[in-house]
Design brief:
This protein is α/β, with parallel strands linked by helices and 400 residues long. It has two domains: 124 residues, Urease, subunit C, domain 1 (Roll); 256 residues, Metal-dependent hydrolases (TIM Barrel), CATH 3.20.20.140. It contains twelve helices and 22 strands. Helix 3 runs parallel beside helix 4, helix 6 runs parallel beside helix 7 and helix 9 packs across helix 10. The longest helix is centred in the N-terminal third of the chain and has 14 residues. The radius of gyration is 20 Å and the shape is globular. The mean pLDDT is 96.
């Protein structure tokens, strides 16, 4: 299917090296972006669906790199059905598992954690709640895992590994399984901060510098942050990606961004939610953290940079083809605008002001999932609409 978005007032690309574009049209086909530029007739020829953005802004679909997936679109922690579909209404088009640690009665032996990761990975290969792409199956590092276990899991498609919930004597004991996971091509992630649930470990800078994972999960606290003295060490003495989460400590979120900005390393800043947890289900969590980073702190980030931390930065660290609006990238696109009744009339000005932008449309794999009104955000000022539709579908969203 070929679709297009026209009439854009600009594009936030998700790419730190070129975060903004004045292009007014995006064309998508076969799940990929094929054209970013002007609305010439050759680009629009053959489109089955055309959405008129009416001057609103396009951003890449948000990538939440810390979601507590179990099986299906259900969270036993909050006993909520349909939370992933609801996250799409908040502009999140990709969710990455923070390990299936919340599966009731989860196994803790090597065979069990391996089977759990493989089953979760395979169960989401074709299941796309609300159109969202879910990368599930993160092997929980436990004592007794061998190189052959990692080889088997990797051969079955598992490419994520999580440290912090295993029955090791000290967090330093994760060093060998982290090394083995990385040797088999897995992205390694480590819980950071105080213990979040019974059975998890408190992990601080000394541990992270010894383990050298790819990502420090919720470096701002999940929900309790590590001591302030540890943050400059992680920024200055490592290249670990530092993930800040909505469900963590806001003050240390801003501190992390400040340190990375001052050292010229904002490509290491990742935004996620760390939900569903005790903090609840948060469909707008990514947007909240974007607005916090762009409106608070000693030196707020430009909205385009904060959005890149929620999109292109995550894509680069997790080796995804989404997160950036450019030809050849996955066609996951969100249209945002200032909210009706607010004090600003432009999406990026609203974010600078600390306001959640309205989500006026979401596309995943090049298909509109809704056009007009999100059920989770205020209404947009500009009336984004379907200008052409040759398909037997109504792309309007469910009302509030």
């Amino acid at each position: 299917m070929k679709t297009a978005i026209t009439g854009l007032g600009g594009i936030v690309t998700g790419d730190l090296s070129a975060p903004a574009s004045r292009a007014d049209t995006i064309v998508m086909e076969h799940g990929l972006i094929t054209h970013v530029g002007s609305a010439d007739s050759s680009a629009l020829n053959g489109c089955a669906v055309v959405v008129d953005a009416a001057g609103a802004i396009a951003i890449p679909g948000l990538i939440d790199s810390h979601v507590h997936i179990t099986f299906g679109d259900y969270t036993p922690r909050q006993r909520t059905v349909g939370f992933l579909e609801s996250y799409v209404q908040g502009g999140i088009t990709t969710a990455i598992s923070a390990s299936e640690v919340h599966v009731p009665g989860r196994p803790k032996d090597p065979a069990g954690v391996k089977a759990l990761a493989i089953a979760a990975h395979k169960s989401f290969l074709e299941f796309r709640p609300g159109g969202m792409r879910v990368h599930a199956g993160s092997i929980i590092l436990e004592p007794g895992l061998t190189e052959s276990d990692f080889a088997e899991a990797a051969a079955a498609g598992v490419w994520l590994a999580k440290a912090g919930f295993g029955a090791f004597d000290t967090p330093f004991d994760y060093a060998e399984p982290v090394r083995l996971a990385r040797a088999h091509g897995m992205i390694t992630t480590v819980h950071t901060g105080g213990s979040s649930i019974p059975g998890s470990s408190g992990i601080w800078a000394d541990h992270l510098l010894a383990l050298q994972p790819d990502v420090s999960f919720h470096v701002n606290g999940g929900p309790v942050a590590m001591p302030d003295r540890d943050f400059p060490r992680l920024v200055g003495d490592s290249k670990i990606a530092l993930q800040v989460c909505t469900a963590g400590n806001l003050r240390t979120t801003l501190y992390t961004a400040q340190l990375l900005a001052e050292s010229g390393q904002l490509e290491r800043l990742l935004i996620a939610t760390d939900t569903p947890t005790g903090s609840g289900v948060m469909p707008l969590g990514m947007l909240y953290t974007v607005t916090h980073l762009a409106s608070l702190g000693r030196v707020p980030l430009a909205p385009e940079i904060a959005i890149a931390a929620a999109t292109g930065n995550n894509a680069r660290v997790y080796r995804l083809n989404s997160g950036i609006i450019a030809p050849g990238r996955d066609a996951d696109v969100v249209i945002i605008d200032a909210s009706l009744g607010g004090s600003t009339d432009h999406a990026l000005d609203a974010i600078r002001n600390g306001d959640i932008p309205a989500v006026a449309s979401v596309f995943t794999a090049g298909r509109p999932r809704f056009v007009g009104k999100s059920r989770n955000t205020p209404e947009s000022i500009r009336k984004v609409r379907v200008a052409k539709n040759e398909l037997p579908f109504d792309f309007s969203s469910t009302s509030h």
